[in-house]
Write a structure and sequence with these properties.
Length: 442
């Protein structure tokens, strides 16, 4: 494809994303490329790079365009991105829309006038950040997260916001059912993929550069699974051991279930539950590849008596709760555009309900691990503290002890009694986890 054709395809992709604003962008992008199989790998990367830089910078680009009263169409967003952030001057941006077969139509008279106005409005400012921008936009964050992020990060807010703009590394987890971390690293190295051990998770390997690992034999044979180190730490802290009875209550496609199965060496029983059939279905192939055969799946349905019948039976209950996902924004830059204050309120209600149900499943002396991939205290500490207020039979289990028992490396990333990881401090996605123990009987 010519550069102009790639640019035209990036505009089409952005239009496709705009048409489904509540859907995760990577799902829409997958459909977009599946319907255009003729687009090769190099072209796809270039198209993604341009479209994703627009998505990543969308709040700032909107600010610039609103200032000149320009509607943020995909064409104008791309033109503005190239001009303000892409290192092109006005003439080069205009030339990027040459028209003709497969290329984007030339900018209309109005579009060109707006682009010239945009260029003039920079008045010497380089890049996308303007001193007159409101703080949230300067930080590339939606306004509604600022109170929560200020409470979480304090003076480190700008540093954390900047880290959320960086591309996330690719982390893998060695599957202990089939290998060790060292052997997995050697297998990957034999296929030309260099990794280094992750600093906190004893199972993790980090790639210095993104590579297509899912095509390696190490991956297809189940020696490794793709999983952010922070996510590995949640499974680690659950401290599931061989022979235990464990529930992964919000298992999704089994990301953490797989790690729990590894820690349990396939001995004992894990029940992976979720309310979403397609997500649970997504677990099947992964469980098979990993050789995890102590896992049963259970689809939770309204009026389901499954939980009632199993009250007080589990050694470990993991609640990897549905959340706003603010901790994963470096990985899903579109999520900050899709999520809002109402989502936060609804999710908090849901989290409290799920936690209440989860508590009943824990045996006396057993542990409930509550985790989110959000760094908003409303979804984290506030949720746990409200739960503890309603459940005097539960108390926080000492984090350092849970960490040491489970084999975590060094000291756990913590804030008070809870595990908290963040992109700037730990190089992982942002995760929160609380380990709560139910009082032993008697
Ligand atoms: C953060 S995701 C789980 C990710 C998964 N544990 C992993 O590691 O890949 C939260 C999951 O909670 C599920 N969920 C939502 N409401 C639920 C409920 N009431 N009970 C159980 N699961 C629920 C969602 O379908 C979603 O799969």
């Amino acid at each position: 494809m010519t550069p102009a054709a790639r640019l035209a395809a990036a505009i089409d992709l952005l239009d496709a994303l705009e048409a489904q604003p509540r859907r995760p962008a990577d799902a829409t992008a997958n459909d977009f490329f599946r319907a255009r199989r003729y687009i090769g790998g190099g072209d796809r990367r270039a198209i993604n790079e341009l479209a994703w830089s627009v998505v990543r910078q969308r709040l700032r680009l909107d600010w610039w365009l609103t200032r000149i009263r320009c509607r943020p169409t995909a064409r104008m967003l791309v033109a503005a991105e190239l001009l303000l952030d892409g290192g092109l001057d006005l003439t080069q941006v205009l030339a990027s829309f040459p028209g003709g077969q497969y290329a984007a139509e030339p900018l209309s008279t109005l579009e060109e006038r707006l682009l010239r106005q945009l260029d003039a409005s920079r008045s010497g400012i380089e890049g996308l950040v303007h001193p007159e921008m409101p703080e949230a936009i300067r930080l590339d964050l939606p306004e509604w997260v600022l109170p929560g992020f200020r409470a979480r990060f304090g003076e480190r807010l700008a540093e954390e916001a900047a880290a959320m703009e960086e591309e996330a590394p690719l982390d893998l987890r060695a599957n202990l059912l089939k290998t060790t971390r060292e052997e997995a690293a050697a297998a990957l190295a034999a296929e030309g993929i260099e990794t280094r051990p992750t600093p906190f998770s004893p199972w993790g390997l980090r790639l210095p550069q993104r590579r297509p690992v899912t095509q390696t034999r190490a991956f297809t044979e189940g020696l490794v699974e793709v999983q952010d180190e922070g996510s590995q730490l949640i499974a680690l802290l659950t401290d599931a051991r061989p022979g235990m009875r464990v529930v992964d209550l919000c298992a999704g496609a089994a990301g953490k279930t797989l790690a729990l199965a590894g820690a349990m060496r396939n001995r004992g029983r894990i029940t992976a539950c979720d309310v979403s059939a397609p997500r649970l279905e997504g677990a099947v192939k992964r469980l098979r590849r990993a050789g995890a055969d102590n896992v049963e799946r259970h689809l939770l349905a309204p009026g389901d008596r499954w939980a009632k019948r199993r009250a007080g039976q589990f050694d470990r209950v993991l609640v990897d709760a549905p959340c706003t996902g603010t901790g994963t924004w470096r990985r899903n830059p579109d999520a900050r555009l899709r999520t809002n204050q109402n989502d936060l309120a609804q999710l908090c209600t849901k989290q409290a309900e799920i936690l209440a149900g989860a508590a009943d499943l824990v045996r006396p002396g057993g542990r409930l691990v509550y985790a989110t991939c959000s760094l908003l205290p409303d979804e984290d500490e506030a949720q746990v503290e409200a739960f503890l207020g309603r459940h005097p039979d539960f108390a926080p289990f000492p984090l350092a002890e849970a960490w040491a028992e489970a084999g975590g490396t060094g000291v756990p990333p913590a804030e008070g009694p809870y595990l908290v990881t963040s992109p700037a401090r730990h190089g992982t996605d942002g995760f929160f986890a609380a380990v709560l123990q139910r009082q032993p009987e008697g």
